[in-house]
Each structure stands twice: as C-alpha cells, then as structure tokens.
Design a protein that fits this description.
heterodimer; A: about 100 residues; mainly beta; B: about 525 residues
C-alpha cells in the first residue's frame, strides 16, 4: 500500500483513514517575511547593480528579472539596507527563490 | 481504359495513401510500442465497419519546401464506424506522416468529421498522436486548432466527446482533449503538457522527463486531466467500448436499457459498513452491492480518491454514482473532489443519466492550503452542479452527514428528489465531539479539573443521543425515509422508477454563470 494511514479530524470527528500523495505534499503555511524579495516569476537576472550593505530608497531599481520575453524591474519595496544579494548576472531562478534579503 | 482498370487504379492509389508515412515509419511507430492510426481504428471499431472519409486530402502549404512534400491524408485518418453496433465518428492522427503534425488541411479533416458527428448526433472519438502545430504552416496551424476548439465547445453536452491520448499532445493541442468529456491515457505512451521539458529546462534549469512532467499517471493521479488510465492500448480501447455501452448517443436519448441483473451480495451491505462512524471502509464495495451485476465502471479512479464517481446500472438502466470514500482522507470534500464530482454531475445531467449519491463524509478538509487553493469556489462548483441538474437525483446517507457537506451532497434542500437515511446516519451541524466541546464549553470548564474529561464524555454522549441520528432530520421532512440498509438497492430502484418521467423547469436563460 503506497498510501499511509493517518488520523484526520474534521468537524470534531476523529477518523482513521488513508492519506494521499497530494495531501502529504501539501505546502505548509508560513507567514511571509517582507524583508525577503522573492522571484515572483521564474526567470533570469540581469544588470545586478546592488551589493550587501547598500542603502536604498523605496522604488530604487535593484536589477532586472527577464521572464516570458519581458524585462521585469525588481525594485526596493521600502527604504532599507541590503543584507545579502543571492543572485548574480545571469542567475536562472525558480519561482519564490529569495533573491534579496533586507536588514 | 475499362472500369476494371479504373478500379484497379483506385485500389493502387488507396494502398499507397493508406501506407501513411511508409513502411519504415510504421516499423518505427510499432517499435515505440505504439500502434498506427489505422491499427488503432481497427482495434476500436467493429470489424469491417470503418467507412473512411477524406483519404485523398492534401495540404496546400507553399513555404519552406512544403510545396514539394506529399503528406498522405495530411497526417490524420477520419471516418465513421460502429462500436458494438453503436455508430461513432472517429479521427486518428497518424504519427508516421510528418509526426502527425497539425496543418490546416489536417485540422479541416478533423473539423469536417466533427461536424458530421454533431449533425448525426453520434459520439465523437479523437485519437491524438501528434508532434503539435506544423510550424511550416505558421498561423494556419493555429487557425486549425481554434476551429477544433469551437466545435468541441458547440458539441459539448450534445454528443459525447472522447479524447484518446496515444502519443505526444503538447502546446495548443492539449486544449481540444481538455474541452471534451472524457480523456483516456495509456502508461508510457501518453504525454500531455503545455510547455515541454526542454523549454522548462532552458528557462528554469529544472530537469524533468516527459513522463514525469505529463505522462499518463501524472494526468490520471495528479492533474485530473485524464479520466481513464490503462496499461496498454488494448485495455484503453476496451475501456472506451465499455463507456460507449453505458452512455446515450446524444443529449436527446437515454442510455440503452439492458436486462436487469442482481447485485453482488457476496458480502451483505451491512457487513461492509462499520456502525462506528470513525471506522473506514471501501465505498466501492457498497456500490457493487447495489449495482446490477455488482458492476461499477469508475471514472477518474486515481484522482481525488476521497470521492468516487462512475457509471453502473440499476434495474437495467445506467446511473451515475457519486459517493464519498471514507477509506481515503475520511471521504472529505476538498478542492479536487468537489471539482471532480461537479463535472461528472454535469455530464450525467447533460446526458439524461440519473444520479445516485452515497453520502458518508464529515465535511470539508480544514487547512490553509485548501482555503488558499480556493475551496470556496471549487466547492461551489459541486453545489451548482447538483442544484442545476434536472435528472432524477437520489441520495442515501449511510453514516456521517455533517455541516456544509451535508447540504452539498445532494440534500433535499438543494433539490434532491429522494433522500434516504440508514439508521446509522448522523445528520448534524458537526460531529458529536466538536459540538459538545462548543455547546457545553462552560459546563466542561466549570467542572473540577479531574472531572472535566468525564463531563466532556457525558456531554458528547448527550449530544450523540439527541442529534447524531437520522430522526431529527426525518422529523422535519429533510429525509424522506429512514431505511433498513439491506433494502438500499430496492429503495433506489423504486425511487428511480417514480422519477422516470421527472420534469422540472428552470427559468429561461442563455446560460448560468457556473463558478468555474
């Protein structure tokens, strides 16, 4: 049997039942960190002009994320100092990759 | 030239064209474990029934050297035939001819046979095995897909449309199958995706095989794109034949009535279902114990297994079963199971197939992932489908019918024609434990710490006694009859008999705004 047995509580009823692959692989919720700038679309970075320690203003362009034949600008969401830059020119990124961390 | 000479000429021409991409290409196709378009049609249709149309169609592309290329039948075989005597229209893409690629003439052959199917009100079966759009024809190929989609949509709900994926089916090509009623896939042969592994790797650096990305198992189990999964082409064609035998040829007919047979009572229904509502069992055993011959033809067996859907017969007539599966995820409703059931309910309604709902579920699956995945809008699809349906709708509540799920599972409030409940049914706003904790929170908290558990148990029992039964709902007329479980099959058949001439009007409208 590929599916494991679990106990599930629904509407105050506790039941023994089999699980499914999808249920086991469901993404667990975690509160998003506003100081992490994540890739909102899979793509390739270009013109990365920021480094750790840079002090930037809200709206400053940090680099471009090329995806679906479009140049998307990645901008600073609020005034702050860059803690780390996790991309270089030409990095190929999956969705939700943490590109920039802000202090 | 005599007539005999002319006929001889015709036969020679036919033989050449029917060879498709030639003997080498056929060998290559067979070596891949795949049959050719013509072999497939022969296997699917009754022997000698295939009447081929448009054998001599040619393409008219002029660019990129296409003007000098001869593509036999333009890469697709079309025609009509019968399956166990029932007329169907069929097309089969021929991968041996230029990779079964779709150009405008190829598409127009398909749309022509689709038009025939719609006009003659017979099922349309499409066998897909194509490398995709014929790039040399440019936008003409795209036009071809669009013309197919238009017909798929117009024919939807009028004639059954079946897609068989027996090879690659990528990019724009995937949407015709997705618009049809039933998609059949075969292990190791079917591949469906919008964006293939090569592009995904070049854009994302994610390496994945075609099989892992969009193979048969993936679509049968994970995406829910496929309705039927088979190990080989022969098994797949047998599934199609069985499906055709169970459904009507069009929306103005009823499925064929066959001789009624007894259900499978090897295990009495009362031995299948544990009285304790927290204990699991396989709902399919219940279906087999009430369906003619113990036969159940399941649809989407591997996807969202917490709900079971499929066809069977009762007293010789086709019915559609929708049943919670306590064995998997406690039979909860969630995004996928609601979506799965909703589409099936609409299918049955469109084709005059009565619905039999077997209910045993605790409610909707809790979780952030479910809420954020849109369990509200997916769940609404099932409510919409049940409320909208005008075919006979029978519900049997076996055990748990809690909360919103109780309303959703074809309750009388939403237009269910007959609702039966077993004496073991618990029709309530929630489970006894949860309800007692909520209603009697103060009483439980007021007790001494060492007595709290005893008080809780007492309150749970009190609630169980009062509400965890079918009689409160029966007392209000929400349940038509509380029945002996052993009489389940008889009661359903009687109800279906009463509903045979059911007629229900809906306000005139262009169409509803179903929440999909």
């Amino acid at each position: 049997m590929e599916n494991k047995n679990i106990t599930l509580e629904v509407n105050g009823c506790v039941m023994q039942t089999e699980s499914t692959k999808k249920y086991e692989n469901r993404s667990k919720w975690s509160t998003p960190n506003p100081k992490h700038i994540k890739a909102f679309i899979p793509g390739t970075t270009q013109e990365v002009n920021v480094k750790a320690g840079d002090s930037l203003k809200k709206g400053d362009v940090m680099f471009k994320l090329i995806a679906m034949k479009m140049e998307n600008l990645v901008v600073m969401p609020f005034d702050g100092v860059i803690k780390s830059v996790n991309v270089t020119n030409g990095s190929v990124l999956a969705k939700n990759f943490v590109m920039i961390e802000i202090e | 030239m005599t007539l005999d000479d002319k006929v001889k000429q015709l036969k020679e021409k036919e033989i050449a064209v029917k060879l498709g991409g030639g003997e080498k290409a056929i060998e290559k196709q067979n070596a891949m474990g795949k049959m050719t378009a013509r072999q497939r049609i022969d296997m699917l249709l009754d022997e000698g029934s295939f009447l081929e149309t448009d054998l001599f169609i040619e393409h008219s592309a002029k660019d990129f050297g296409m003007e000098s290329r001869v593509l036999h039948g333009d890469g697709v075989v079309t025609g009509t035939g019968t399956i166990n005597g029932s007329v169907v229209c069929v097309f089969a893409q021929d991968f041996t001819v230029f990779g079964g690629s779709l150009g405008l003439s190829h598409a127009r052959k398909i749309t022509k046979i689709m038009d025939v199917a719609l006009k003659m009100r017979v099922p349309m079966i499409g066998i897909n095995d194509s490398g995709g759009a014929r790039v040399q024809e440019g936008v003409g190929a795209l036009a071809g897909y669009g013309e197919i989609f238009l017909r798929n949509t117009h024919a939807s709900g009028v004639i059954p449309q079946i897609s068989v994926i027996l090879g690659p089916c990528a990019g724009g090509a995937v949407y015709s199958p997705a618009l049809t009623d039933f998609v059949f896939v075969v292990e190791k042969i079917s591949k469906m995706f919008i964006t293939g592994p090569k592009i995904i790797e070049s854009v994302l650096g994610e390496k994945i095989s075609p099989e892992e990305l969009g193979g048969a198992r993936v679509h049968a189990e994970t995406t829910g794109n496929a309705h039927f999964y088979a190990q080989n082409e022969k098994e797949c064609f047998d599934q199609i034949k069985e499906l055709i035998s169970l459904i009507p040829a069009n929306n103005e007919q009823l499925a064929e009535t066959v001789e009624a047979r007894e259900a499978d009572t090897t295990t009495p229904i009362t031995d299948i279902v544990p009285v304790d509502a927290t204990k699991p069992y396989d709902i399919k055993d219940v279906i087999k114990s009430i369906a003619d011959g113990g036969e159940f033809f399941e649809v989407m067996e591997l996807f969202a297994k917490n709900i079971v859907i499929g066809f069977g017969r009762m007293d010789g007539n086709t019915v559609g079963f929708v049943a919670n599966q306590p064995k998997v995820l406690a039979g909860v409703l969630d995004c996928d199971s609601s979506d799965k059931a909703a589409r099936f309910i609409r299918y049955c309604d469109a084709f005059n197939i009565p619905l039999v709902t077997l209910e045993d579920m605790p409610g909707y699956l809790p979780g952030v992932d479910q809420e954020h995945a849109g369990v509200i809008r997916h769940g609404a699809k099932m409510l919409y489908a049940y409320c909208e349906a005008t075919v006979p709708k029978i519900t049997v509540i076996l055990r748990k019918a809690y909360g919103g799920g109780y309303i959703a599972m074809n309750s009388r409030h939403m237009g269910g024609d007959f609702v039966f409940a077993w004496p073991t049914a618990e029709i309530a706003v929630m489970g006894p434990e949860g309800a007692a904790n909520l209603i009697f929170a103060k009483d439980i908290a007021a007790a001494a710490p060492e007595e709290q558990e005893a008080v809780r148990q007492e309150k749970i029992n009190e609630y169980k006694e009062k509400f965890a039964n079918p009689f409160v709902a029966a007392g209000k007329g929400y349940v038509d009859a509380v029945i002996d479980p052993a009489k389940t099959r008889t009661c359903i058949i009687q109800a279906l008999k009463v509903a045979e001439n059911k007629y229900e009007e809906r306000p005139p409208k262009k169409h509803g705004i179903a929440p999909f």
